[in-house]
What does this fold into?
Amino acid sequence: MAIKADVLKMDLGSEGFLAALMPRVLGGLRYVATRVLPPVMFLALIIGVWEIACSGPDATLPPPSVVIEDTWVLISDPFFDKGNLDKGLFWHLASSLKRVAIGFALAASIGIALGVLIGQSTLAFRGLDPIFQVLRTVPPLAWLPLSLAAFRNADPSAIFVIAITAIWPIILNTAVGIRNIPQDYRNVAQVLRLNGFEYFFKVMLPATVPFMFTGLKIGIGLSWLAIVAAEMLIGGVGIGFFIWDAWNSSLISEIILALIYVGLVGFMLDRLIAFIGNRIGGYAQQ
Amino acid sequence: MSAYLSFENVGMIFKGANGPFIALRDIELKIERGEFVALIGHSGCGKSTLLNIVAGLLRATTGGVLLQGKEVSEPGPDRAVVFQNHSLLPWLSVYDNVRLAVDKVHGRTKTSAERDEWTRHNLALVGMDHALEKRPQEISGGMKQRVGIARALAMEPKVLLLDEPFGALDALTRATLQDTVMELQAKLKNTVIMITHDVDEAVLLSDRVVMMTNGPAATIGEVMEVKLPRPRNRLQLASDPEYNRCRQQILEFLYARHRAPAAHAA
It folds into this structure.
């Protein structure tokens, strides 16, 4: 019925149709003007300054125009695979992402479990919190030699570094979330006589989700920071090694291109976790 | 013959940083089935502590509470609480908040269809059947409290405990909710203990008003019967001599004989 009415209106006169469409068009334009235009303008400004600053004969870094020219092969075909390490950027990013996915998944599952433990048990909190507070300040790369010694293999070592980097904010935020469950919810659970299992799934987990995702969001950012550094050292396929390799071959333009990709992927990972968090624990933001 | 609900020499001592703190002492009270009792007193007089003891959320240091001759030792749905700040779970819809309680309490005795029906029935009782799918943060404070009441009623408690249920509401919302509670009470004849700060609320709703002395070591100072016929109407009561006598008696107790301690009043 509604569709029929719309068609009728269009037939009767395009003026009515236009009038109905106008607010949506204006709304769209306003969005473009307020949200899309400013970043585009500033990006153009930054690129312009960069172009001017780096176009002199003494410039040590290439200007954007040269970067695009130098790396056009990489930009236009990210999917080539000439065997060994000579692959398109997509493959480098994909294998970095795979390591992050495994390491982060480990960090998330172990981290949430430990967070629940130290959030629930005062003894566990008193015993483990000081240890965690010390360990979390150890820089990611400092773990790498130790994990290489333990695993004797590049890939698991990189994954371990990711996991150990991402796990601390996940543990600590989950624990804070559990400690912050309002007494009211605990009272309700007691009056209803929820058993431990029901309490965990119906009260504790949902109440903690927003805190957990704060930890997961910080964690994914840290793991992306750590993977690039770790891969520079361990080699193999991966965006970190790609950057290191480009530096060794003095291909500065390729480094710049890779940095842009690293930034974009990191941004997308952050948004992905935020999106999932909003879908699951969105009640907290309202 | 023992009373339906009785407080026997209830005392509560908290172990504080500066030594023990006596919150309550010598509480003796008997409540009959179907009675509506209001507990009134200044802030800090231990009203909530007393209610929490009945709920089983706290254990009395001395004495105890007997419900149908059995001592209360832990929380349970037979003593449902309506908390002051509603305490609905924000990730569940209005329906699911009540359904959680219904499933837990009637899971063994009712089929799924009956529990659905019972959930809707109780939400309809408090006039919230239009907002089943809303989340608590999408409805007003008064509505949240209605859902809290529906959740408590759905447990079919032996005693309904209201912990300053309308304390956080504006005066108009408060009045309509008081009317709802009176209607429900006329229909369901629950045994109710309600904490309040509000003299009018106490007189309007209850059969007896229990006045508490100031803490520390608070106890029951006076118990007053409200001999007003039901149903009660707030407009007619305003000029009713018995109503005003009751108000007067509570006001005198609270402000002449047991003024709030200066530190609290300031």
Notes: The mean pLDDT of chain A is 88. Residues 210 and 281 of chain A are 5 Å apart (CA to CA).
